[in-house]
Each structure stands twice: as structure tokens, then as C-alpha cells.
């Protein structure tokens, strides 16, 4: 198992190097960081001094090596817009994004999988048809439009939930913050979590339904029925367990997508996370923040793929035997 983990991590190194190269290219070929930092009123001597201080007078590959070395030590540079270390901005915004992403993923899994199991077992009932119709709406509706509709109904018309912001957040440990410690924080999380998790929930439901229908037609399920096993044992002990491998894959990839592409939801609800920080940085070409975001998302996907591969061994004994 240790060798398997090591091989996966070694395979991830080229991916991170390519993403790092793209992020570094943003520094060199998008915008002019010297003009952004100095502003309009500066002398040529000040410009040359800043170029030397930032190392922009060095050869390309020397700058690339320094960039990677700084990234390995958690030094992502200084934000042009806020004049603060990018690492501190990430530490400040990352808890909000992870809290939103984890909540959305838990909602999608807790609701989507049972709905998929029900529609797979009772596919001709009225409730199953309603679930399938709702899933088509959830898959087709754009995230920003869903968020606006939820704000209109639950914030403007009914006044039940806040329409923007994270609510009061409490520090837990050195840098982690959470809004779960107060009812106001939980209320602020409901609408963004539903908006972000709706597509994943409907996707999981349709995937589990399709896998259940396929597994229930296999020979070993027919043999289990011939042995006299109960429907509950067959549906949940045999059929559902064999649908988990593709479900785990989708959950893992979708969680990475939720973290990486939560910027639409965070912008609609003004959620103070990494996505909103990226949108604000793109507007002013804040290259250090954009580069750090790329590297962070690449690392998240690498770690998620590793966790998914390890979960395969936990749910599928055939892989352990083959190994």
C-alpha cells in the first residue's frame, strides 16, 4: 500500500510542474507587475530597482526555478491589489470555501444517493417520476440562475434566509474559522450550499439509479433472490455495494470541481472564499493570487484522486485480491 501511494505521488509531480509552469507564465506574459506595483508616477530608476528586486532581470528558467522553490516553501508572493502576502489571503479565505464545499458535498451525497436507490428500485412509481423530472431541472439549470431564484424566493419574498455574506465566523485553532457555531452562520450557509450542491446531487441520483438498474439485472442478484434473501438484503447488501465504485469516482471529482469552480456561487452570494477572491483578482490582473489559486486547485485534485484510489480498495475486494 505504501508503494502504491508513493507511485501515485510520483505521478502527480509532472502534473504540478506543468501547472506551475502555466502559473509562472502568467507572471511573465500577462500584464506588467512593475507598473501595477509602482503606479503611474514613478521614475525609471525606481522601475529598474524594482525589476532587480523582483528578479525579473534573471533568465527565464532561473526565474522559474525561484518561483517553484518559493511555492514549495509556501511563499506565493505579494498581492498587487491588496499589498498583502498571498499565503495569508489564502489562509483567510480557504476555510470559507472548504466549509461551503464540504457542506454542499454532504448534502449532495446524503440526498442524491437515497433518491437514486429509490428510483432504481421503484422506477415506475409517481414519486420516482417526480424525482427524475426534478433531476432534469437540477442538471439543466445554471448555477447562477439557481442562486438568484433561491435568493428571490427565500430572501426577498419569504425573508427566511440571508441573501449574502457568511455570517459570524469563530476562529478555531491558529487559522481555521467556522460559521457552524451560531445559528446565523448556519442560516447564511444554507442557500449557497444548496446552490453549489444541486448539480452534484442530481448527477449522483441519476448515476446511482443507472448503476442500480444494471446491477439488479445481473446473475448473482437473481441467484440471491433464488436463495430466498430478503429484498432489503439484496438491494442494500449486494446491489448498492456494487454501485459504489463509480459513485466514489464521481464524488471525488465533483468535490474537486466544487472547490475549484465555486467562484460563481461565491460571487452570487458574496461568500468570502477563494472563488470570490479569484474573481476580484482577475478584474485587476492580480497575477500572484491567480497563480496561487491554480497551484492550490491542482494540489486539491491530486490529493482527491489519491483518496479515491485508496477508497477503491476499501469497497471492492476484487482489487485487493488482484493486488
- Main sheet summary: 2 strands, antiparallel
Q: List how many beta strands DSSP finds.
A: 2
* Strand and helix order: HHHHHHHEEHHHHHHHH
The separation of the N and C termini measures: 9 Å
CATH homologous superfamily title of the largest domain:
MetI-like
What's the number of domains? 2
Estimate the global geometry from the Cα principal axes. globular
> The CATH topology of the largest domain, please?
MetI-like fold
Question: CATH first level of the largest domain: which class?
Answer: Mainly Alpha
CATH architecture of the largest domain: Orthogonal Bundle
What is the structural class?
mainly alpha
- Low-confidence residue ranges: none
* Beta-strand residue fraction: under 5%
Number of helices: 15
Q: Give the overall pLDDT as a whole number.
A: 83
Strand order of the largest sheet: 1-2
What is the helix content? over 70%
Radius of gyration: 24 Å
Would you write up a description of this structure?
- By secondary structure, the chain is mainly alpha-helical.
- The protein folds into 2 domains: 2-72, no CATH class; 93-322, MetI-like fold, CATH 1.10.3720.
- It has 15 helices and 2 strands.
- β1 (170-172) and β2 form a beta hairpin.
- The protein starts with a helix and ends with a helix.
